Every structure is written in structure tokens, then in C-alpha cells.
């Protein structure tokens, strides 16, 4: 590196010439020595002004005067054999530095010329620079003799394999094992089958105590090679730290144990280990298991645990780590064991459920007609761990005892459980206590009364049986239930049998005929569309070209044909069909698979469109050119059962390949996104004061998730008062105190009399009703303006009431013994006790109110005094129990201080991103707006991209305007940026020398009529003989609501008197604009005029180009297209509750938020932009935080995923808490 200084020249007095006072070169190379002298002269005060602390960082220290040499452990040498040693790259480079330093010194001593000394200095500098960093841009790399580049200090530290990330933050560890995993449904979900070869190799250090000394003596005796079926020990560590290897210690005196010694024993059954599968995308990718030593060489894993690990048994390998201290074991036991991880904070739902054979078995076993013989039932009982010798009474006694499949579940469902769910095939019309199709799953006090179990009840979904057991009875009960279900059902399925064959995919002859007819009709319809398009009779859809509209219509027709043929195939399959059994159970497959196997595979797409032309105007050489029919563009009319033709097979492979490439590409994309999210939020935790802070102490949130709750304990709950109409609301909550004949059957007569006679009581109930009405109003108008009735909240109140009714055997026909006043007082006191933010100061009280607002509204409406008495009929005892439960569960739901919620949030967003498809092509729905979704959009949001792929506004209109399509169309025309080009059909330049007449036959009449009324301003002599003739597109003019006069006025306004513009009537056959250049003075007669007018045509051509592209007729810049669409808005009405109203709204391509919001008919309070940079510039930081949240929600929820609000909120707050919208590097 050379540093060149350039000096300014100075002027001598009385001398105009530039010259230096002395003959000094203007450019000089600054040596390091000279730079050092300059930097040394910077004073300490100046250092501080530069932002440097002179104690720790003086500028002159930037010039190396001494080179620090690292010790040998940093650069170890390797003995190749007895004679030769290989040195490390750093040692090699240091030797080069010393050698060249010595050479430089020698040259200086010998008085070598300056250029040679400079070259030697350069060489020394090169070696020092490459010692630190051997990847300097523009510099050759220092190499070993073999030509291999040396590994510099810099490359040892940075990047993934460097010292920090490769050896400090992540490293290879001892006490770990890795092998292939295989399934074992007979072990518990928290168990792990470990091969003997691993168990006899890994050790756990156990301290000798009076309680285990005998057991450890036996293990030491067995030593490192115990007899078959036993485990031993490998080392004894004495109190002085001396380690005895039991392989070599043969004397029994050396094997003597004393209290306080440590024995490194082999793994035993029941030891706790950590089990992990990469990629570790969320915290359930590493969980604690109890080991069970087994024969053979693979890890054995229960099938239900595969989903959180995202593991399958096609050759996956997993890692096991053995904790080495009691502290680690305690953490594994309390925080990481599988049962504790069943419910995930990501979407507040279980991540484990019943899968595969067991799920299918549950569906078959719980059907109404499934009966179990005595011998099979007795054997099933043997699989039940808690069997106490009492056999449940059979359902049928004569002629022989027979049990039902549902009775098996009565054995294993915990007795405290109450649940109502619906099977996947439940019809909405069947809403009785039970249903004809046995689809209402009703469990009361642990007894399955009705319903067929399927994935909806037993799967990993919110509110499923597993979720309820985990929340109500605890993690261990959920573990037991999952284990027992598998063991009992698998045994029954083994006896009952299940198989699937080709026969299950064959539909009957009538169905096949119907399917063929459907596909044939679709082909005829597509041919009709092709004909329409060729004859230009096809009506283009709004915002689309005719070709796009044609493709969209064809896709709709073909997809409809696939769906109709598929649904015919499904309906034809009988209830006993094995394929249908698997699909309805939820164990494997979907209805799409059935329709593709039986009916028709359907349209194959590449990049969201039909197969494009790859050859010249055709997809394959087997088709004719310009064939837009279904077959040539990738429609597969055959089913998998019939088999695909060669061309169908080829198109199908094209569609399938896209999915494979997509998966390969997105893995690295989402992996990097997740890493950045984790790095940005890894230090965010809940502190003891309830605030969420990072490692610097910056407050990210004042309360986690704005309610201080842990997502694990949250469930979706209905706010039922919101959906009620006013009459219904009064019926549920209001006492008829003014009715003299009011004698309710749900209250004791004394209590009724109190309510009627005591004024204070009446005031209390009036106040209670007013509060409930205010709650309803606040919910409808402020909190949930969309009419969303369910919200995630802690403590499932409805289930708690049901549990109380069952536990305390409440008779719903008897009146309650409670006084309504007791209920109101108890609920008021309970609300005061439910503290999230402690403190009596004004801010704490306000924060507490905000944190518990929604839960208190739910509490008040659920436990309104009339509901408790009339609907639930709770007794004093049961009501007190419920109040106590609410309090304890609410406190249990509070997030624990020290919880690293930044990591949890990053995982909860990164994990669904991995499941996302990379490119999600635009909706083929009503809107023609193209929207970026999936991983590319997530990347745009996190990167805070200044230029996004599809910028768009959602424009809402003011009341009155939004109800009429015509008004919305007017706003659409006013917003859409319209240039002259967009309404022009054709332009021509003519030589037409007579301005008052014309050579163009079509224009003769209108030109003559235009000039019949002489215009004093028009001087024909000044007009150019060259004419720009513009023919306008009538359809576009009508669509954009423009008239000829508007356009002419715009041209005159833009060009003043420089152009003369005449036009015909709006009703003429062709809409023509005639434009001429108006010169300032008439051209002279003769040959000179010819030359000048010849230049006019060139000038006119330029004007034409300028007018078409630059001249805006109306609209807002950057709003390229505006689409009109019908949306639904829920409006809250005090009497009617929420009412859905249709409204017209606009979507735009391109953004200009400020200008659009300023339009008089646009509702600025609801209009949003997906361009975050624009939002922060126009509306500020609070708006961009909300916009960020909404955009993340759209990206994550488009494929049906759900992530709890608090995780998204942490990400948004991390990006915006410094009052600027920041990206993650």
C-alpha cells in the first residue's frame, strides 16, 4: 500500500503565475515513518474530539512499530516422523517477515539505492499484511512452496468455520452419539431406545454416597466389559482428581470406593439424555428422553415424537448428548423433557399427536359398529399400565360378553376430562347432542359417550384431546395418554388387520363414465374459448390483457373439471373403502390424492402458468404450432391408475421438478433468514420487573405480548357477548326486576325477593349491566372492529365451568343456592387480585388495566351473575372452586422472568418460513393484483427493501362512495396515472400542406366543419404543412371517462400556442386529434420554406414521442394500475351486533400513499401501503410498526399457518424500538 500526498501550490506576491516557493514535487509518497510523526503530534484533546480515548486508542498506534508474536499453541508444529517437522502457516509467515526485515536492514546498512530499499520495504509490508489477512482485494495471496495459500489470522477468526463461530459458539463435543433412527411404537414418548454398543461406551459421572455405594461397587466390579445384559463402569475419579482406568486396574484394592469418589459408569435404563435432530429450527428440535437400552444398532423413537423433530425413518440420523452434572440433569428434567414440550409457544397448540397406523386404528376402533370379543379385550387390558384387575362391564352380555371400541378409550382418557369436538367429516346441519353419522365427539368425566375419533381430536391441533389433557391434568398425563393409545390401539389393529390395494382406487363404471363426460365437456369449453380468443370476441377481465384473461379462464375451466371429476370419484367410494378410511382418519393422504389416483391428475403448472412454449410456437414437436388446447399445454386427463401418456408424463415431470428445485433453493434462503432473526433477538429476555429488554437494558416492550402471558398456556376463547343482538344480550344478562310476575326457577325465592325490594341491590345489578354493555361497545367499536369473535387468552373459562358442573354433580334443573350479590362481589375482588403489573402509582394502574382488559371483559361476560345462576346453576362450593382455579391458573399463565423470548420469537417465525413455498404465484381470483408472498416477501420485509417487487396500496373509500360501483369507478379513474399513450390507438405523420383542408378523405368533413366558423387566432400561413394525426381508442376513453375536449385542452395547456390542435366529435366513428406546429411567423415563399418545413417533420416526431409518454391526462404519478374489487366490512351496530356489509374498494399497482390519501373520496384512516419505507416517511414509526405486523401476518398466514401475536410483536418492536425502521444484518 502506498500513501500519496498532493500539496497545493502557493502564489508569491506580485506574481500571477502558479509556482512553489521552492522546487518541491507536488505529489509525494508518504512513508510510514512520516505518517507516524504526523499522528504522534495529535494531542490528547484532539483525540477525544475525534472520538478516541487516548488511554486506549491513540492514532499513532495504527502504525505497527512492534509485531506481536502468538505463542506456539496458536501455531502448533507437527512431527511428521522422527527427523522432520512441519510448521504452521503462521510460523512460516513469521519466518518470512523476520527474513525480509533482516534483508531490509542489510540493504539500508549497505547504502542501497532508494528504489531498492522501497521495494524491500514493500515486500516486508506485503508479508505483514498477508500475515493478518491473506484475502486482500487487489493483492496476490501469500503461498506455501506447494502453491497453497497460507491461512492468515483473519481467516482463522471469521466466517462459519472460524474460531468464534466454529470453535467457541459451536463446537464438537464429547459424551455424544449419532446413529440412524428407527420407529418403535412400544416405548413411551419420552423414552429413547439406545443400542448396547452406545450405552457401554458413553458414561455418566456419579458421586459415591451411602445410598448408591453398593450399586456402584457392583458396576465397578463389572468394569468396562460387563457380562451380557449388564452395564459397568469405565473410570474411578478419586477425591484428589486421580483417574483410574478400569481396563487396566485388576487388583480389587485399587477398585475400592469411598464416599466422595466419582464413578464414570455406563448408561443405565432411565438415565436422562438430550436428543437432537438437525436442522434445529425450534426448541422442540432438542428434547430430553429417558433411555431404554436395546439390542441392535439404531436409536428407537416413538412415532408421535417425530413431528417436532421433523424426522422420518428413511435414513435420518440423530444425535444424543449425555448430561454430565446434576444441574444439567435437573434442567433437562424440568425444562426439556418431551412431555413438557408437548405444547409449543409458537402457535399455542400441541406439536405432538397420534399419527399413522394408530390414528387409523382409532378411527376404525371408535366407529359405532366396532365390537371387541372377550379374548381380544382381555389382551388389550394387558397393555394398559394402570390395570388394577377390574374389568369394565361389557356393552353386550348375551349371548356372549362383547365390548365396544369406545370402551377401550374410556380406560385411558383421564377422569377429569370433558370435551366436545367434531369429526373431520361432520356436517354443519347436524348440531344435536349426538349426530346420525356419529361425528360429535363427546367426552364427559373421561368417558367417550359418542363420536368417532380422528386427526381433529387426536392430532396436534389447538383444543384437541391431547391439548386439553396437557392443560387440565398435566404433561405426565398427556404422556401416558399418548403411550396407552398407541399400545392398546396397535394391538387391536394387529388383531383386526388393515390392508390397501389397487382395488381401493377403482371407481365403478357409472362414475368413470361421468368423469370422462366432465373432462370431455371441459375440453369442448376450452375449444370454445380458443375460438372466441382467435376471433377477438373474448371479453378481457379488468386489469388484464386478452391473453391473460384467456389463460385465466382456461385454467378455471380445467381446474373445475378436475375438482368435479375428483368429487365424483370420492362420492363413489364406499364407507368400507380403505383409502377413504385413511383420508378421513387423517393418517395419510388427502381427497386430492384420491381424485388424482382415480379420476384425473389435472393441469400441470410451471411458475404458476400452463406449460409454456419451449419449441417454436409449441410445447413439444409432437403438437401442431399455436396449439393452445388443454393437452398441448400440460393438462393430464388420465388418472395415475390409468397411467399417463408419454407427453403427459413429460409435463408432469416438469411440474414436479419445479417443486424439487424450489425446496432446494428455499432451504438456504430460510436458513439464513432464521439465523439473522436469532442473532438480532437472541439477547431479548423477560426481566424480573416484567419488562422485555435486551442485553444493553433497552426496553423492547413494557410487558411481554402486552399481557405478560406465556403462549403455552393460552387458548382461543369466544367473546360471546360480541355476536349477540341487543334482545339476546338483554335476555342473557338483564334481570326482569320491573316485572311483578317474575319468578325465576334458577334462584331461591328469598334471593328473588331481595332483588325486588332492596334498592342497593338493584343499583349493583344496574351497574353490572351497564358495565357489560360498555364492554360490548368497547369490543365492537375499538378492540375487534373486524368482528373476530375468538381471541387467544389464558384460562379456558367455559371448560372450567363444565369441569365444575361434572365434579360437583350440578343438577341443571335445580335452582342455585347462591345470592347474585355474592357473585358480583366475588368477581370484582377476583379482578383486583389478578395482577400482572404490581404497583399503586398511576402508570402501574393504567398498565395493569391495559394488560388485563380483554381477560376482564371475558371474565365479566362469562361470570355475569344471571349466567352463573341460570345457565351454569353453580352452587356456592363449586363457584368458590372455580374462582380459586381461575386465580391459580392465571398466575401459572404469567411468563416466567428469565424466559429468553427473543429466541422463541425468532424460532416461531423462522420455522414456518422453512415450511413456506419459495415463490407463491398470484391469486387466480377476483383481483388481478399481483402480490409477492412467501419467502421473497419475508426477505423484503426483514431487509426493509427500498425497492420492492410489487408495491401496492389497498385503498378504502369514504362511506357513500364505497357503496356504489359507479362512484368507486370515478375514484379509480381519478387515481390511475393515465398518459396519452394508454388511450391512443394509432399515430401517423402526414404531409398535409393545406391547414384549412386536408388530403385525408376520412377527415375532410370534420376539418371543413371545424373551420366553417372562422377563428381569429388561427393563421393558416403560420401552420406547418406537417400534421400529427392521433387516432384514439374509444373503449379506453370511455373506461377512463375522458372526452376529446379534455385531451385537446391538456395539449393546449402543455404547449400553449406552439401547437395547434383540432379534434372531431366524441360520437364520431373514429376519434381523431390533428396536431400541427404553429410557427411564430409565416415562412417566406420559395425554396427556403421547403427546407424548414422538412425539419418540422423531425421535430414533430420528437413531439409525438414526448406527448405519448410524458403527457399525463389525469391520475397520480406512480399509480400505474388501479383495480376495483368488492370487499366485505363488518360494522358494529348496538342493536344488531356485527353486520357484514359489502363495499367497493381499490387495489393499486405502484404506490404514492400521501397523494392517494389526499384524494377527497379516499378514507385515509383505513388506506394502507405494503411499502414500509413509504409508510414511515408519510405516517411515522407507530404506523410502520403496525404495517410491519400486518405484512408479516399476511405472509405467514397465507398458507394457513398461525403464529401467536407476541412473537411477531417482539420482531416488530426490535426493528422499531429505536424509532427508526431497521433491518437485520
UniProtKB/TrEMBL annotation:
<dbReference type="InterPro" id="IPR044893">
    <property type="entry name" value="RNA_pol_Rpb1_clamp_domain"/>
</dbReference>
<dbReference type="GO" id="GO:0003677">
    <property type="term" value="F:DNA binding"/>
</dbReference>
<keyword id="KW-0548">Nucleotidyltransferase</keyword>
<feature type="domain" description="RNA polymerase N-terminal">
    <location>
        <begin position="60"/>
        <end position="366"/>
    </location>
</feature>
<feature type="region of interest" description="Disordered">
    <location>
        <begin position="1"/>
        <end position="21"/>
    </location>
</feature>
<keyword id="KW-0677">Repeat</keyword>
<dbReference type="InterPro" id="IPR007075">
    <property type="entry name" value="RNA_pol_Rpb1_6"/>
</dbReference>
<comment type="function">
    <text>DNA-dependent RNA polymerase catalyzes the transcription of DNA into RNA using the four ribonucleoside triphosphates as substrates.</text>
</comment>
<keyword id="KW-0539">Nucleus</keyword>
<dbReference type="InterPro" id="IPR007083">
    <property type="entry name" value="RNA_pol_Rpb1_4"/>
</dbReference>
<dbReference type="InterPro" id="IPR038120">
    <property type="entry name" value="Rpb1_funnel_sf"/>
</dbReference>
<dbReference type="Pfam" id="PF04983">
    <property type="entry name" value="RNA_pol_Rpb1_3"/>
</dbReference>
<dbReference type="InterPro" id="IPR007066">
    <property type="entry name" value="RNA_pol_Rpb1_3"/>
</dbReference>
<dbReference type="Pfam" id="PF04998">
    <property type="entry name" value="RNA_pol_Rpb1_5"/>
</dbReference>
<dbReference type="GO" id="GO:0006351">
    <property type="term" value="P:DNA-templated transcription"/>
</dbReference>
<protein>
    <recommendedName>
        <fullName>DNA-directed RNA polymerase subunit</fullName>
        <ecNumber>2.7.7.6</ecNumber>
    </recommendedName>
</protein>
<dbReference type="GO" id="GO:0046872">
    <property type="term" value="F:metal ion binding"/>
</dbReference>
<dbReference type="InterPro" id="IPR007080">
    <property type="entry name" value="RNA_pol_Rpb1_1"/>
</dbReference>
<keyword id="KW-0597">Phosphoprotein</keyword>
<feature type="coiled-coil region">
    <location>
        <begin position="512"/>
        <end position="539"/>
    </location>
</feature>
<comment type="similarity">
    <text>Belongs to the RNA polymerase beta' chain family.</text>
</comment>
<dbReference type="GO" id="GO:0005665">
    <property type="term" value="C:RNA polymerase II, core complex"/>
</dbReference>
<dbReference type="Pfam" id="PF04990">
    <property type="entry name" value="RNA_pol_Rpb1_7"/>
</dbReference>
<keyword id="KW-0804">Transcription</keyword>
<keyword id="KW-0479">Metal-binding</keyword>
<dbReference type="GO" id="GO:0003899">
    <property type="term" value="F:DNA-directed RNA polymerase activity"/>
</dbReference>
<dbReference type="InterPro" id="IPR045867">
    <property type="entry name" value="DNA-dir_RpoC_beta_prime"/>
</dbReference>
<dbReference type="InterPro" id="IPR006592">
    <property type="entry name" value="RNA_pol_N"/>
</dbReference>
<dbReference type="Pfam" id="PF04997">
    <property type="entry name" value="RNA_pol_Rpb1_1"/>
</dbReference>
<dbReference type="Pfam" id="PF05000">
    <property type="entry name" value="RNA_pol_Rpb1_4"/>
</dbReference>
<dbReference type="Pfam" id="PF04992">
    <property type="entry name" value="RNA_pol_Rpb1_6"/>
</dbReference>
<keyword id="KW-0175">Coiled coil</keyword>
<dbReference type="InterPro" id="IPR000722">
    <property type="entry name" value="RNA_pol_asu"/>
</dbReference>
<keyword id="KW-0460">Magnesium</keyword>
<dbReference type="InterPro" id="IPR007081">
    <property type="entry name" value="RNA_pol_Rpb1_5"/>
</dbReference>
<keyword id="KW-0808">Transferase</keyword>
<dbReference type="InterPro" id="IPR042102">
    <property type="entry name" value="RNA_pol_Rpb1_3_sf"/>
</dbReference>
<dbReference type="InterPro" id="IPR007073">
    <property type="entry name" value="RNA_pol_Rpb1_7"/>
</dbReference>
<dbReference type="InterPro" id="IPR038593">
    <property type="entry name" value="RNA_pol_Rpb1_7_sf"/>
</dbReference>
<keyword id="KW-0862">Zinc</keyword>
<dbReference type="Pfam" id="PF00623">
    <property type="entry name" value="RNA_pol_Rpb1_2"/>
</dbReference>
<keyword id="KW-0240">DNA-directed RNA polymerase</keyword>
Amino acid at each position: 500500500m502506498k500513501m500519496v500526498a498532493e500539496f497545493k501550490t502557493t502564489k508569491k506576491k506580485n506574481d500571477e503565475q502558479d509556482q512553489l516557493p521552492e522546487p518541491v514535487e507536488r505529489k509525494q509518497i508518504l512513508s510510514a515513518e512520516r505518517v507516524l510523526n504526523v499522528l504522534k503530534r495529535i494531542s490528547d484533546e484532539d483525540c477525544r474530539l475525534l472520538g478516541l480515548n487516548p488511554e486506549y486508542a491513540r492514532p499513532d498506534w495504527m502504525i505497527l512499530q512492534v509485531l506481536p508474536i502468538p505463542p506456539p499453541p496458536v501455531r502448533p508444529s507437527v512431527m511428521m516422523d522422527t527427523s522432520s517437522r512441519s510448521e504452521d502457516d503462521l510460523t512460516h509467515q513469521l519466518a518470512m517477515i523476520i527474513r525480509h526485515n533482516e534483508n531490509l536492514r542489510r540493504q539500508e546498512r549497505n547504502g542501497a539505492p532508494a528504489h531498492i530499499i522501497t521495494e524491500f520495504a514493500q515486500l516486508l509490508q506485503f508479508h505483514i499484511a498477508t500475515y493478518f489477512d491473506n484475502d486482500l482485494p487487489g493483492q496476490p495471496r501469500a503461498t506455501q512452496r506447494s502453491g497453497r495459500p497460507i491461512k492468515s489470522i483473519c481467516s482463522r477468526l471469521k466466517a462459519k468455520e472460524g474460531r468464534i463461530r466454529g470453535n467457541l459458539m459451536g463446537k464438537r463435543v464429547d459424551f455424544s452419539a449419532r446413529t440412524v433412527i428407527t420407529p418403535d411404537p412400544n416405548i413411551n414418548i419420552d423414552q429413547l431406545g439406545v443400542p448396547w454398543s452406545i450405552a457401554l461406551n458413553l458414561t455418566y459421572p456419579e458421586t459415591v454416597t451411602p445410598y448408591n455405594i453398593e450399586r456402584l461397587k457392583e458396576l465397578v466390579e463389572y468394569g468396562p466389559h460387563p457380562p451380557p445384559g449388564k452395564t459397568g463402569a469405565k473410570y474411578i475419579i478419586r477425591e484428589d482428581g486421580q483417574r483410574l482406568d478400569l481396563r487396566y486396574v485388576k487388583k480389587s484394592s485399587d477398585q475400592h470406593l469411598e464416599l466422595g469418589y466419582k464413578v464414570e459408569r455406563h448408561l443405565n435404563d432411565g438415565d436422562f439424555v438430550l436428543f437432537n435432530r438437525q436442522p434445529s429450527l425450534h426448541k422442540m428440535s432438542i428434547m430430553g428422553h429417558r433411555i431404554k437400552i436395546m439390542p441392535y444398532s439404531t436409536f428407537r423413537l416413538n412415532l408421535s415424537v417425530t413431528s417436532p423433530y421433523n424426522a422420518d425413518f428413511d435414513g435420518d440420523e440423530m444425535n444424543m448428548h449425555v448430561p454430565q452434572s446434576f444441574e444439567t440433569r435437573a434442567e433437562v428434567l424440568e425444562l426439556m423433557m418431551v412431555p413438557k414440550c408437548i405444547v409449543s409457544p409458537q402457535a399455542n397448540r400441541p406439536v405432538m399427536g397420534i399419527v399413522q397406523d394408530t390414528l387409523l386404528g382409532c378411527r376404525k376402533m371408535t366407529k359405532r359398529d366396532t365390537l371387541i370379543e372377550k379374548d381380544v379385550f382381555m389382551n388389550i387390558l394387558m397393555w394398559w399400565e394402570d390395570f388394577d384387575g377390574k374389568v369394565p362391564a361389557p356393552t353386550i352380555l348375551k349371548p356372549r360378553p362383547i365390548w365396544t371400541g369406545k370402551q377401550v378409550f374410556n380406560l385411558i382418557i383421564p377422569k377429569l376430562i370433558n370435551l366436545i369436538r367434531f369429526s373431520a367429516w361432520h356436517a354443519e346441519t347436524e348440531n344435536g347432542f349426538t349426530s346420525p353419522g356419529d361425528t360429535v365427539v363427546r367426552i364427559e368425566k373421561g368417558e367417550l359417550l359418542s363420536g368417532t375419533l380422528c386427526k381433529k381430536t387426536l392430532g396436534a391441533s389447538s383444543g384437541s384431546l391431547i391439548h386439553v389433557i396437557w392443560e387440565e391434568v398435566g404433561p405426565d398425563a398427556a404422556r401416558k395418554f399418548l403411550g396407552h393409545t398407541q399400545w392398546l390401539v396397535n394391538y387391536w389393529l394387529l388383531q383386526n388387520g388393515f390392508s390397501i390395494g389397487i382395488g381401493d382406487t377403482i371407481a365403478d363404471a357409472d362414475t368413470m363414465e361421468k368423469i370422462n363426460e366432465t373432462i370431455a365437456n371441459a375440453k369442448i369449453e376450452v375449444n370454445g374459448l380458443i375460438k372466441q380468443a382467435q376471433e377477438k370476441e373474448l371479453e378481457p377481465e379488468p386489469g388484464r390483457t386478452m391473453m391473460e384473461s384467456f389463460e385465466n379462464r382456461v385454467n378455471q375451466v380445467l381446474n373445475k373439471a378436475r375438482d368435479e371429476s375428483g368429487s365424483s370419484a370420492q362420492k363413489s367410494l364406499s364407507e368400507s373403502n380403505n383409502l377413504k378410511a385413511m383420508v378421513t382418519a387423517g393418517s395419510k393422504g388427502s381427497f386430492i390424492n384420491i381424485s388424482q389416483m382415480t379420476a384425473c391428475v389435472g393441469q400441470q403448472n410451471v411458475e404458476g402458468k400452463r406449460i409454456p412454449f419451449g419449441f417454436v410456437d409449441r410445447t413439444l414437436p409432437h403438437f401442431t404450432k399455436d396449439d393452445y388446447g388443454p393437452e398441448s399445454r400440460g393438462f393430464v386427463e388420465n388418472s395415475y391408475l390409468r397411467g399417463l401418456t408419454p407427453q403427459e408424463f413429460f409435463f408432469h415431470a416438469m411440474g414436479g421438478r419445479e417443486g424439487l428445485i424450489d425446496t432446494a433453493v428455499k432451504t438456504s434462503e430460510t436458513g439464513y433468514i432464521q439465523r439473522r432473526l436469532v442473532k438480532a433477538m437472541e439477547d431479548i429476555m423477560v426481566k424480573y420487573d416484567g419488562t422485555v429488554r435486551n442485553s444493553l437494558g433497552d426496553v423492547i416492550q413494557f410487558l411481554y405480548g402486552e399481557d405478560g402471558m406465556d403462549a403455552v398456556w393460552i387458548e382461543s376463547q369466544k367473546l360471546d357477548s360480541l355476536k349477540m343482538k341487543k334482545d339476546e344480550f338483554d335476555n342473557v344478562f338483564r334481570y326482569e326486576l320491573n316485572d311483578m310476575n317474575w319468578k325465576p326457577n334458577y334462584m331461591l325465592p328469598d334471593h328473588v325477593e331481595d332483588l325486588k325490594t332492596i334498592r342497593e341491590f338493584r343499583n349493583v345489578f344496574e351497574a353490572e349491566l351497564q358495565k357489560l354493555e360498555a364492554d360490548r361497545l368497547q369490543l365492537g367499536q375499538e378492540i375487534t372492529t373486524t368482528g373476530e369473535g375468538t381471541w387467544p387468552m389464558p384460562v379456558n373459562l367455559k371448560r372450567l365451568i363444565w369441569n365444575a358442573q361434572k365434579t360437583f354433580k350440578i343438577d341443571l334443573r335445580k335452582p342455585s343456592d347462591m345470592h347474585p350479590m355474592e357473585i358480583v362481589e366475588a368477581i370484582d375482588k377476583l379482578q383486583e387480585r389478578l395482577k400482572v403489573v404490581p404497583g399503586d402509582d398511576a402508570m402501574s394502574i393504567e398498565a395493569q388495566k391495559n394488560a388485563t382488559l380483554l381477560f376482564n371483559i371475558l371474565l365479566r361476560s362469562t361470570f355475569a351473575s344471571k349466567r352463573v345462576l341460570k345457565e351454569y346453576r353453580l352452587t356456592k362450593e363449586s363457584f368458590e372452586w372455580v374462582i380459586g382455579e381461575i386465580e391459580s391458573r392465571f398466575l401459572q399463565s404469567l411468563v416466567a422472568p428469565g424466559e429468553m423470548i427473543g429466541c422463541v420469537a425468532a424460532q416461531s417465525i423462522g420455522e414456518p418460513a422453512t415450511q413456506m413455498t419459495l415463490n407463491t404465484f398470484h391469486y387466480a381470483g377476483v383481483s388481478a393484483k399481483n402480490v409477492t408472498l412467501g419467502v421473497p416477501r419475508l426477505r423484503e420485509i426483514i431487509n426493509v427493501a427500498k425497492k420492492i417487487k410489487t408495491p401496492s396500496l389497498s385503498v378504502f373509500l369514504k362511506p357513500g362512495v364505497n357503496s356504489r360501483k359507479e362512484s368507486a369507478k370515478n375514484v379509480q379513474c381519478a387515481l390511475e396515472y393515465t398518459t396519452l399513450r394508454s388511450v391512443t390507438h394509432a399515430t401517423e405523420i402526414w404531409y398535409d400542406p393545406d391547414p384549412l383542408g386536408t388530403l385525408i378523405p376520412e377527415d375532410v368533413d370534420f376539418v371543413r366543419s371545424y373551420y366553417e366558423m372562422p377563428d381569429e387566432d388561427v393563421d393558416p400561413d403560420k401552420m406547418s404543412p406537417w400534421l400529427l394525426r392521433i387516432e384514439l381508442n374509444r373503449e379506453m376513453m370511455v373506461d377512463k371517462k375522458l372526452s376529446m375536449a379534455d385531451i385537446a385542452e391538456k395539449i393546449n395547456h402543455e404547449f400553449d400556442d406552439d401547437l395547434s390542435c383540432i379534434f372531431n366529435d366524441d360520437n364520431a366513428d373514429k376519434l381523431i386529434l390533428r396536431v400541427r406546429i404553429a410557427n411564430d411567423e409565416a415562412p417566406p415563399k420559395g425554396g427556403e420554406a421547403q427546407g424548414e418545413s422538412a425539419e418540422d417533420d423531425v421535430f414533430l416526431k420528437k413531439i409525438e414521442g414526448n406527448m405519448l409518454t410524458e403527457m399525463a391526462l389525469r391520475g397520480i404519478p406512480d399509480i400505474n394500475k388501479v383495480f376495483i374489487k368488492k370487499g366485505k366490512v363488518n360494522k358494529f351496530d348496538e342493536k344488531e351486533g356485527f353486520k357484514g356489509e359489502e363495499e367497493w374498494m381499490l387495489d393499486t399497482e405502484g404506490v404514492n400513499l400521501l397523494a392517494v390519501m389526499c384524494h377527497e373520496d379516499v378514507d385515509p384512516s383505513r388506506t394502507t401501503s405494503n411499502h414500509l419505507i413509504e409508510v414511515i416517511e408519510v405516517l411515522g414509526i407507530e404506523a410502520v410498526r403496525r404495517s410491519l405486523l400486518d405484512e408479516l401476518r399476511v405472509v405467514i398466514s397465507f398458507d394457513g399457518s398461525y403464529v401467536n401475536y407476541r412473537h411477531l410483536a417482539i420482531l416488530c418492536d426490535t426493528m422499531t424500538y429505536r424509532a427508526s425502521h431497521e433491518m437485520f444484518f
